[in-house]
Write a structure and sequence with these properties.
The structure holds two protein chains of two kinds.
Chain A lengths: L8 E5 L4 E6 L8 E7 L6 E6 L4 E2 L4 E4 L5 E6 L8 E8 L12 E6 L1
Parallel strand pairs in A: 1-9
Antiparallel strand pairs in A: 2-7, 3-4, 3-8, 5-6, 6-7, 8-9
Chain B lengths: L4 E3 L2 E4 L5 E6 L6 E7 L5 E8 L2 E4 L8 E4 L6 E5 L8 E8 L8 E2 L3 E5 L1
Parallel strand pairs in B: 2-11
Antiparallel strand pairs in B: 1-3, 3-8, 4-5, 4-9, 5-6, 7-8, 9-10, 9-11
The chains are: A mainly beta, B mainly beta.
């Protein structure tokens, strides 16, 4: 299973943009890139996913490098509610058996 | 539309007892996944089920653990003869179909084995 590498922790200020990086140098051509987040004491929550093109939704944007070996989750204006652990996950196109790493713990300062 | 429901939210068992964890998927979802999360770790896939079928149980320990998703009723994760190492948060997720890209997670069951 392909692996992802993320920084252990990051910090941001409220209402500023946040760029969360993820390296996946062993990604294969059929692997989708998923992002989930987990707020304290809650179950994970889907954020966004993509394959090759950049993606936008109401929660975030996903920028995927041209060689697909890295991606960046962009929160355009961080709020206190965005403080969570963010997981970057690769999935071989069928969404089963998501392989989770340790994620990035994002702190948002007021 | 209610989300994924899990019960109980907290479960305490003594070593050697059985633990039964229940998961009701979102309405209309027929695919269920179980994950385990140990303290300070990421989630680990355990099993993927469709109604009445186990599709992938490659993450399930070989002994004491079983899962089912009957035609009627919730999915059940059963742990027999629990040990202290089974203490963890167990999350259930559901998706609409095999091709769906989003998994919707429940709030989890926190199992403590004393």
């Amino acid at each position: 299973d392909a692996k992802t590498t993320q920084p252990n922790s990051m910090e941001s200020n409220e209402e500023e943009p946040v760029h969360l990086p993820c390296n996946h140098s062993t990604i294969s051509g059929t692997d989708y890139i998923h992002w989930y987040r987990q707020l304290p004491s809650q179950g994970p929550e889907y954020v966004i996913h993509g394959l090759t093109s950049n993606v936008n939704n109401r929660m975030a944007s996903l920028a995927i490098a041209e060689d697909r070996k890295s991606s960046t989750l962009i929160l355009h204006r961080a709020t206190l509610r965005d403080a969570a652990v963010y997981y970057c996950i690769l999935d071989a196109g069928n969404n089963r058996k998501l392989i989770w790493g340790l994620g990035t713990s994002l702190a948002v300062n007021p | 539309n209610a989300g994924v429901m899990q019960n109980p939210r907290h479960l305490v068992r003594r070593r050697g007892q059985e633990a039964r964890l229940r998961c009701s998927p979102m309405k209309g979802h027929s695919h269920v996944y179980w994950y385990r999360q140990l303290p300070e770790e990421g989630l680990k896939f355990m099993v993927y089920l469709q109604k009445e079928n186990i599709i992938d149980e490659s993450g399930m320990p070989k002994e004491r653990f079983s899962a089912e998703f009957p035609k009627e009723g919730p999915s059940i994760l059963r742990i027999q003869q629990v040990v202290r190492g089974d203490s963890a948060a167990y999350f259930c997720a559901s998706s609409l179909s095999e091709g769906s890209y989003e998994q919707y997670f429940g709030p989890g069951t926190r199992l403590t084995v004393t």
